Amino acid sequence: MSELFDAVDALLASRAALPPPAERKRLRAAHGLTIDEVATALQVRRATVSGWESGKTEPRPPERDAYARLLDKLAELYPATPVETATPAPAPDPVVPATFTAAPAPAEARTLSTGEASEVAVMTATENTQTPAHVAAAPAAATRPARTTRPSSTSRRPGAKKAAPANTPAGGADPRFENGPLAVVDVEDGKVLAYCTGGLVLDVPAKSIPALVDWTLREAKLGAPKLSGPGKDADPLIVLTEAALERYGLPVTLTEEERLAGRIPEGHKVIKQLARAEWKLTKRGFGPWARIYRPATGSERACVQLCIPSWNALDTRHWGTAGQLPPAELARVLGVYASRVMTPRGSTAVTGLELMTALHPPTRASEPDADGKRHSEHNPGSLGKDAIDPMNWPPCEVPDGHPVLKDLPRFHVRGPGEKLFEEAYDWARPMTDAECTLRHMVGIDVNMAFAAGANGLPVGLGEATHVKAPAFDPKLPGSWLVDLSHVDLSRVKVGKEWVELDGSLLPSPFTPKGERPEGPAWYATPTVAYAQELGYEVRPIEAWVRYDNGRYLDGWYNRLRDAYLATMADLGVDADLAPADFLAAMDGYKSRDPELAIVVSAVKATVKGGLGKLRERPRGEGWRPGEPWRALSRPTWRPDIRAAVISRTRINLHRKIVKHAAFTGQYPIAILSDCVVYAANGPSPLDFLPYREGKPLPGGFKLGINPGLVKWEGTQDVLWGEEVRERFNAPELNLARYIKDGTVTDVDNGE
Fold this sequence. Notes:
The protein is α+β, with helices and mostly antiparallel strands. It has 21 helices and 22 strands. Helix 3 (35-42) crosses helix 4 and helix 16 runs antiparallel to helix 19. The longest helix has 26 residues, at 639-664. The N and C termini lie far apart (70 Å).
C-alpha cells in the first residue's frame, strides 16, 4: 500500500500548482534571491531556473514539488498587490525610438517604455554574480512596484540584486549608455533583436548595416564611460550572429582567401552601402572586428565596433565556446568582460593593449590660455601620441628585421652581446637518484604571473639615452650590457644571509633556458638588479636607459587583477581561503558556471596578449626585412616594456625557488613559463610546500588565487616522467609542459 501512496504523491507532485512565470520571478526578486541561489537550492542549472521564470520551460518532478513549495512560502510573505496583478495597460504612444521585447533565452528580460529605460541603467552584465567589494550595489528592483507591460509582450521585470557595472559611478549608470556596453544582434521568427547585458532585449528596426550603425548610435543607448579623466568613452559593440549576417547580406563564414586577408573584398555590396551612407572603415577593413565610423566633429564621436563570431572573432584558445553560445548567454559573457575589463576592441591581445591606452590617454586638455581656450597637450605618465622613430631605437632592444638593423649582413645572427633576450623559462634537468625514489611529480602554477610582474614596475615612457660605462641603478629602467657569468648559485644571499645551495640543480636566473651566461649580454634592469640582490657586483659596459619613466602598468594591473579576482569569487574561489580550502574550491571551479569560466580565460589571455602586442612582429602585408611595419607606428610598440615585465616575472619566480631550496632542500625538476614541477611523496602541493600552522614560508610559494600566488597545476607519477623521457630519449624533456594531464603528443621541441 505504501508504494501506491508514493505513486499517488508523485502524481500529485507532477501537477503541483505553480504561479505564472511573471509571478515566479516577482516572488524570487521580492525576497532578494538570485537565480543562482534558487538553482543551487534546487540542485539545477542557473539556465533551468531562468527558463522557468521566462515561461520557456516548466519544472518536472522532483524539482517541481520543491519549486512549488518555495513559491508558496514566498507568496505568503509577499502577496501580490493590485498593481502587480493589474491587466496590461494600453499601448503607449507609437513614436518610440527603441522598443523593448521579451527575451526567450534563459536571461531575464522585460518590455520597457522609453521613460522606464533609465531604470535598467543599474543592471550589470554580471547578472546574479558577486559584486566586488569596491563596487556599490545598485538599488534592488524588488523594492519598486512592478510595472505593467505592453499587451503584445510577455516579458517581465528583471530580478533584484544586480550590481552597477564596474566602470560606472556608484549609485547609477551613465544615462547615455543605460542599455549597457554591447548587444548581440540576432534574428528570431523574422524579428531582429538586440540582446543586451542584464537580460534586456531591444527590437531593432534597421534593415541594413548602415541603418544598424545609425540605430546603434542614435537610439540604442549603448556604450561605456571612459576609464580615465582625459580618455574617451568606449564605442558601442554590436555582435552579429549567423542569422543576423544573413539578414544583412553578409557571408556566414569567410572563404579561405578572405580568412587569410582578414576581411571581405572591398567590392562587397555591404561595403558599398556603407560608402554611400558616408561611413568609413579603418585600415583593417570589414573583418571579424570591423570598426565603422565617421570622422569626429569636435568632441562628438560616431563609431561602432562590430564583432562577428562565425568569422573567428572570438578565438577559441581564449574565448572557449563563447562563439557558439546563444545570444543572451553570449551577451552575458561579453558583458561581464566589458564591465570588469573594458568593451572588447578586437582580440584579447588588442584589448589588452587598448586598455593600457584607455587608462593612460596620450593627451589631455590644457589649462585655459589668455583667451580662455583649452588645447591638447601631452598627458603626463602616458606614452604620448607619437611613436618612437624606428631609427631612434636601441639596436639591442628590437627584433630581427627592424629598420635600425638594416645595415647588418643578411644572414647575421645576433648573439647575447647584441640582442636583449628576456623571455620566460623553458628549463628542465634530469632527476636525481633521491628524487627518483619519490612517488609523485607535482606541478604548481603562478596565478596571473605576468600581471604580477607588471605591478609596481618602473618602465620607460620615452626614448632611451645611450650611456657608456654607467653605474648601475636598480631603479632606472633600461637595457644593460653586463657580464653576469661570475654569479655562482652555489653561494648566494637570501635576504641578508649567505646560504649554500646545490647550484647544479638550479636554473640560471639570467637566461630563459637556465644556462649560465658565458660573457657580456644585454639584460633588462630587473635581471641585473637580481644579480646584485644575490650578493654579486655588477659593472655594466654600456646601457640604454630611460630617465623619463613611471609605473605605467599599475592601473592596467589593478583593473585586470580586480576582474580576475571578482570572477573567480563568483565561481566560488575567494581570495582569503585557507590552503586546503583553496585547493578544494579550485577543484572543478569551471563547471560551476562555464560562462564565467570563459571570462576568466579571456582575462588571463588579455594579460599575456597585451604584453605580447608591445613587440608585435610584421604580419604579412608584403613586408621585407629592414622595412618598417605597421605596428611600429604605434606609441604602444614598446619591446623594452615587454622585456622588463618578462624579466621581472622570471626573477620573481627564481627568487621563490631559491627561498624554497634554502629552507627545504628541494629543487625544481622542470619550469615552463609560470609552471614549476617538484618531486614529492604525495600528490598535493601541500605535500611539499612548507606550511607551518597554516602560514607559508615568507617570500616562498603560497597557495591562493591572488596574482603571484600559486595553484595546483597537475600531478603525475615519477615513473610516468621517467618513461616519457626514455621513450623520447630526452633526459631533459620539459615535463612541466605535460604535467597537467600527462598527455605527450610528440617530442618536446621547445615551441
